[in-house]
Write a structure and sequence with these properties.
The protein is 37% helix and 20% strand. With 163 residues, it is of the alpha/beta class. Strands 6-5-4-1-2-3-7 form a 7-stranded mixed beta sheet, with helices on both faces. A hairpin with a 2-residue loop joins strand 4 and strand 5. The longest helix is centred in the C-terminal third of the chain and has 14 residues. The chain is globular, with a radius of gyration of 15 Å. The relative contact order is 0.19.
Amino acid sequence: MARLRSRVPVASAREELFFAGYTNYFLWTQVPVLSELLRRKAGAGCRVRFLLGDPDGEVTRNREAVEDAELTVSARIRTTRRHLRSLVPAVEARFSAPADAVNHVSLSVFRFDGSALVTPHLASLVGHDSPMLHLRKQGDGGLFDRFTEHAEELWGRGVPVRG
């Protein structure tokens, strides 16, 4: 995920930061000052949102069985939630709705204004082993819009993260 830092710096966004990955766990390992940066961005009027999978949901349990990784999906989500607690209310966070979780776990969309990183997760691979596409908004109705609108749909039906 070093690509996140080098190609699309979070620092360049002025209006929108939307992290719609199922766990979003890696962000703090790749950008150690992320919490401070997000706090400053939100304070400057940038909308900052996180869409997470439910750590106790059935899709999460199924994904853990598929990945069979020591650092479980639920542990990665809980780590992200721990980081987000210090950012509320400046940062918005939701869990994907139970009916949407199967669509969310297989696709990550990270939006930075008119740029997005999209990762379609492949079979039994963990997210960082799947390909990442870097999309830029060129006009209306293109791939950028299709992926970011999908993430917006999931957000719209999401359940607010409490505590």
